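User: Batch of two.

Assistant: Item 1 of 2:
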Amino acid sequence: MSTTANGNDSKKFKGDIRGPGVPSRVIHIRKLPNDITETEVISLGLPFGDVTNLLMLKAKNQAFLEMSSEEAAQNMVGYYSTVMPVIRHHPVYVQFSNHKELKTDNSPNQEVRSSLLPSRAQAALRALSTSHVDPAVAAPSAVLRVVVENLVYPVTLDALCQIFSKFGTVLRIIVFTKNSQFQALLQYADGASAQAAKLSLDGQNIYNGCCTLRISFSKLTSLNVKYNNEKSRDFTRPDLPTGDSQPTMEHPAMATAFTPGIISAAPYAGATHAFPPAFTIQPAGLTVPALPGALASLSLPGATRLGFPSMSAGHCVLLVSNLNPERVTPHCLFILFGVYGDVMRVKILFNKKENALVQMSDSTQAQLAMSHLNGQRLHGKPLRITLSKHTNVQLPREGHEDQGLTKDYSNSPLHRFKKPGSKNYSNIFPPSATLHLSNIPPSVVEDDLKMLFSSSGAMVKAFKFFQKDHKMALIQMGSVEEAIESLIEFHNHDLGENHHLRVSFSKSSI
């Protein structure tokens, strides 16, 4: 069955060729290669959520991809606005469509008439979108043993972190060679993430036809890491020494620069987190864009020629753009970015108040904040976050008034990650509609907290105290955006009795 639009459809689609506009579940993809397959287009969306429909306009080198939720679509467009997707060496353009959904019937007055997907595309959707994780079955361990077979190209610790952090927070990782095989031990914050990663990645190739992942659960329940270098890393202990680090592999920059979607044999089945992966390296000055499409065709000779610069370890300043200048303050950015690391300084640009610089305490925290917050909505506008060319945020010189647009938070008591090994490291989650509240005094009851969180005009959908510990609770807001704004407003709120409320994003729902 043909999925090429007829002439009437083509006229209707002209309105879509514009910059990113009003968010929609339907994504418009342009400048596709002539011989593009349905599977390659679907794979562009899969890292961000389930794909529910597809319309190919092969004659116009375009496609429409419908995501399962507007949030997934927003994250996809946000991510690809900073990392240009490439399929078969062709950069492709991703933006929101004017259309709210792809219809599949043939009524004449329809907004978008799409043919029903051909059977091969339906099969591709089913195969690529189905999650195989059974939440009822507990994972034997949060630690995975990873063996990389057919090691044609070097694989680094950073590359493995990028790939595996798609499924949850990676706490620790150790790479080593045993029996002439490159191996790794990798510890997640929880067993469910380890199970999802094993089921989705076991047997996949990192590059086309080589570097095959063989994954099993380790008998270890935790990893003990003494040094942070290219052989071992403990993301909960940035203070660890580097030790006597071994010489780096021959082409570490090549592997570290790839985004997780470069797995070529099949994409991340079950990777439905609506956020770009943690620890994704976003190199500056790329001449060849990275390939997020999971089935993007990367030929082996091409891989050896890709000259990616690696990101310097000290790169910890983020450029945040598309802010709402009427409402944004240094304090609000300090609280929000402080969920993912310790914010040292914030500067809202004097002549362009939609832009700000946020300086984190190290590059890992900067990557973490960027990967979780890019594309999220704040005060009605999706955040755009990239690495800044600046290495630190300058404070205004004495006598120069900057209207309170630059703030130094280096000695703030509100830093969440000052203590080495802080449990906050294992509670880092993407923004969600459900917030985790802690440090609640005994006198504060459910109605008090519901009233507090609705006082800003937000909707409180549900609330639940922890059964064993009434110092903690979950509160579900009307949307992720409302939850983000509530976290900014009520983190550190004084509840009396010398208790200041602690607010973070939860992975649970009520």
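Item 2 of 2:
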Amino acid sequence: MDSAASRPAVVIDNGTGYTKMGFAGNVEPCFIVPTVVAVNESFQNQSRSSSKSSNWLAQHSAGVMADLDFYIGDDAHARSRSSSIYNLTYPIKHGQVENWDAMERFWQHCIFNYLRCDPEDHYFLLTESPLTAPESREYTGEIMFETFNVPGLYIAVQPVLALAAGYTTSKCEMTGVVVDVGDGATHVVPVADGYVIGSSIKSIPISGKDVTLYIQQLMRERGEHVPPEDSFEVARKVKETYCYTCSDIVKEFNKHDKEPAKYIKQWKGVKPKTGAPYTCDIGYERFLGPEVFFNPEIYSSDFTSPLPVVIDKCIQSAPIDTRRALYKNIVLSGGSTMFKDFHRRLQRDLKKIVDARVLASDARLGGELKAQPVEVNVVSHPIQKFAVWFGGSVLGSTPEFFEACHTKAEYEEYGASICRTNPVFKGMY
């Protein structure tokens, strides 16, 4: 047993909106930070302009400084607000890494400034979105083994981890549908006995970020005075603080109109440039934001299938002998499933679809055969916000985890292609 395997593994779940990081065996991540990097732009311009006059040493040191002068997460937001020399980059878009340089810098800060550990001493468990290309895993492996020199690496699929998160909370159910609504992507992934049914994965172009954009749009159209450079952040905070799912839009509108004092909230902010305070009202967007999952046409005309319909289609396309089990265990994961009553609304709408189908089949058979009612159950638990991370923590604290990892020695022998497959048990390719 080498020494790294006796220390807890590092679990980093990189999402489009937030990155959750910590050590295996913990109940919750040590840090949850926005996945964003602020890079100092002034150095690059300086070194270009002064290339003729100044010596190469000054240029070199400027380059080294530029490599070190960057911030991530909330620090990045704060920096870019207070000074104009920092440019924000979001390394992950729609669940896929787009900017590998920024991603490498992001990991660097995660490991050294946040977790404060030596990457050579810990095995690493990273996560990826279900539809990631194998090349992306190779890049990840390359960065981890070459730059950070980690002793072992495992790249897990997010929904499977979200299902594994239920290990400790309920009886070990490895069959279920994971509805993972993140900031940049929404995936509906059916899992049977721990294996992803790849052909039935459904992905929806509506995610947490769209809720934020929709709230931003609603507030802008109503003429609330939010400084434009701050409006996206304000919309995000409004979403996280005040939004909820309603059972009926029309009733909800009426409620708000009847007693505005009870439902309309105030948002207080400070203008970044002048420091002057401002306030604005938050009204209908409190329930219209999350409504985009159930009535997408209010937000965009490109995509109009509600989330419950997509989940139903996903289960109907799965092998017939798994369907009942799948309806029975629909697991929510990701921050955008945290809206109040989200799981109730989802369960109610799904139940309607399923019951209608059972009734129709009874009618077709003319009452000779009665179909058994289908149990629909949407599981909600307090950790669904970081269910993926928690699943990783559970997995990373099992002794089998260290056997399943790709090691530095294997990487040196076979190259980055070993990272393409991450089997649960070695020898299963």
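Residues 111 and 117 are 6 Å apart (CA to CA).
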